[in-house]
Amino acid sequence: MPHLSTVEPADASPEVRDLYLDFQRQMGCPEPPNFIKTQGHSLAVARGTWALVQNVLVGGALPRTLKEMVLTAISSERHCRYCETAHLTFCRMLGVDADSLEKLVRNVEGLDSARVRDIVSFGMKCARDPQSLRGEDYETLKHHGLSEAQILELICLSALAVYANIIADATGVEADTMFGQA
Length: 182
Hints:
Layout: H1 14-27, H2 34-38, H3 43-58, H4 64-77, H5 81-93, H6 98-106, H7 114-128, H8 135-143, H9 148-171
Helix pairs in contact: 1-3, 3-9, 4-5, 4-6, 4-7, 4-9, 7-8, 7-9
């Protein structure tokens, strides 16, 4: 049961409605997800979240598919069912195979690509315990060809995942039918 209601587009201010449409268009959703509609109560919050999503998830140097994989793994590890389901859906939309999706939620170490596995693992470690990151963690990413800008992007993506997990869990946002089941 949700702790906060959603603000449907018909009931939203024109500014919030425009934000919903932009979110929908850039994220490739058929409708605005409950995650952003819950934030429609506060234009400032919705704008802040959307700015983070636009700049850290949609934009940037790392491929969106890889970012969605990181978000899926972090959300699964943190037991945020809403975010896990949503990001699994985005991974499917972007062409991630079923075997990789299963490994993202069950056994990241089993991912076939060492590069993807190490990037996802770094993101998870950063979200779980950023103070435990060591020089070798960064060297592994550099060995896979990541620039410092891309590593910073991955760090910020991990923070975005935790931020989104907290919002989804604290508001009790209900699953979107467009995302199906995890």
